Amino acid sequence: MGEYEQISLVPDLGGEIEEEDRIRKREEENLVESLLFSLGRSVSVEEIATCLNMGKDGAFLAAERLRERYEERQEGLLIKKLEDRYQMVSHPKTYEGLIRVVKRPQKPVLSDVALETLSIIAYCQPITKVEVERIRGVKSDHAVNRLVEFGLIEEVGRLEAPGRPMLFATTEEFLYRFGVNSLKDLPALPEEVEKLLKEEVTEELKDGFGLEPDEAEATDENTVGEETKETVGEETEEAAREEIEEEQREVLEEDLRNSTEEEAEEEANAESPET
């Protein structure tokens, strides 16, 4: 009697479960991908969780799987992680071609003064404008206003001190522009520089506001209100007016010089004997 091969009629439940799990994960990643593309901005883990109708832990895992997929592909797009947010961005290798179409990159051009101010805020945040000026040794109104305009810094609260000065910190745009995922990824400062910055901030808190470092508490970001936005807007508008007035003065001075030269030339021609 010949031997017959045994045919298993029991379904491969383990394989089916694995396949269902793989399909479920891919659907989650597709939803995250669609969300990032549709919004066109950075998206928080909370928003991803809402989209997937699940908890933050599951949403985080889905976003990370999608980010790793894009990282492995190394094609035209990447998923960038910015602190606890995710954003779909162009791959750096595509920049040359994109710039040819756009004509010029839409990037703010920062002066040395603005870069210096931004560096101080990045390493000492949250910090007031007065503290920045203490460290730099000069007024910094214009530099701070320009950084706010560029979206590289923002107001995050107010110092609990006389006058309640605004506190500034870097934004998500700052992380994106400088290619870091978190403030922890910023280059470490030399120990003596870091110590000097802390000393300057501490002295300004004492001299300017009569506060010890542990007494400097900021109000919650949600309590800032419209008054704060109006103040930043007024300062920005004032700086813009000053620039326009300066340009107008230069034009008037140039016209005056040209007019004076023309009058002098006419007088010289009038006095010269006719030939």
From TrEMBL:
PANTHER family, per the entry: SEGREGATION AND CONDENSATION PROTEIN B
Domain of life the protein comes from: Bacteria
Alphabetical UniProt keywords: Cell cycle, Cell division, Chromosome partition, Cytoplasm
NCBIfam families, alphabetized: SMC-Scp complex subunit ScpB (TIGR00281)
Biased segments, Basic and acidic residues type: 226-242, 249-260
Gene3D superfamilies: Winged helix-like DNA-binding domain superfamily/Winged helix DNA-binding domain
GO BP: cell division; chromosome separation
Sequence segments annotated as region (Disordered): 205-275
Acidic residues bias: start-end ranges: 212-224, 261-275
Database matches in Pfam families: SMC_ScpB (PF04079)
The name this protein goes by in its record: Segregation and condensation protein B
